[in-house]
Amino acid sequence: MASSKVLMIGMGAGAAVAIAIAVAAFATMGGSATTTPAAAPDNNNAEGAQKVKVIASFFPLYDFTRQVGGDRADVSVMVPPGVEPHDWEPTPQQIQRASSANMLVYNGAGFEKWVDAVGANFTVNTSEGMSLLNNEDPEEQKEHGLYDPHIWLDPVLAKHQVDKIREGLVKIDPPNADYYNANAAKFASELDALDSHIKSELSSCEKKDFIAFHEAFSYFSNRYNLTQHAVHDSLTPEGEILPQRLEELVKLAKDLDIHVVYSEELVDPRLAQVIASEIPNGRVLTLSPIEGLDEQEQAAGLGYLDKMREDVANLKVGLVCS
Ligand SMILES: [Zn+2]
């Protein structure tokens, strides 16, 4: 996975620009123990009680689990900060650490292909019982299976995930059930507030169509009545953009009077820039799939709710909302 991707971008005139993308810069962090170390069981806290050790697969699940677990759970994350989690695979050490936790929280819907390899003591599949959308992008389908896993980007579905985490914590640590129930209820009300915020912020927009980097926003778009287009479905598995698809995307943007192409914090923005440069008054903004924070964001202590609000602010620009 530590390979650099080379993007060959056809420019219509026949000139091809090759952009080497330093995916490796992120990947090099993958093998080292940059995650929050799993602390030894704390037998000396005020209650004299031992915290439950929980490991979450990637950022949103980590944040949700922290919210519900509060100071009774020692939560760490599998996919390190700054690493794109789609194709991530754990090292044997990471698998070992995860298998020693009391509980493993994961998204499901085919996102974490490595979950079975962990052999965790107790697992929480946060998408269990949810009706899932099919993966529309054939490339994504080949890599990640039949279902679209990006449920966390819909705050209403995120509430379902939070409830699954609450259930799991109550099951493995019944004496603290009231505490977990109260934390989950509090966070659920914050997700309700986020849902209302999004509805009101996007209530008077000129457009419904936007160009995301990859097809992460299907659940979000269904919830808020938007139409997602994606750059990623124009790429070959080798990371080359097909000249014909580039032309199609540029035509789509012109036809729909779109001037913003969205990129992501964990991908090279130059790909979106190439498309934006072909569009009149085109520009690139970030629309985060919240699959992982970069190191700066991690250091600033940003959470899921902050990131969702950032996304909404940037979407408002592209959708031309008042
Ligand atoms: Zn994704």
UniProtKB/TrEMBL annotation:
Alphabetical list of InterPro entries matching this protein: AdhesinB, Bact_metal-bind_prot9, Lipoprotein_PsaA-like, ZnuA-like
Domain of life: Archaea
MF terms (GO), sorted A to Z: metal ion binding
Cleavable signal peptide: none
Matches recorded under Gene3D superfamilies: Nitrogenase molybdenum iron protein domain
Keywords: Signal, Transport
Signal found in the keyword field: yes
Biological process terms in GO annotation: cell adhesion; metal ion transport
Keyword Signal: yes
Record Pfam families: ZnuA (PF01297)
Family of this protein: Belongs to the bacterial solute-binding protein 9 family.
Name of the protein in question: Putative Zinc uptake transporter, substrate-binding protein
Species this protein is from: Nitrososphaera viennensis EN76
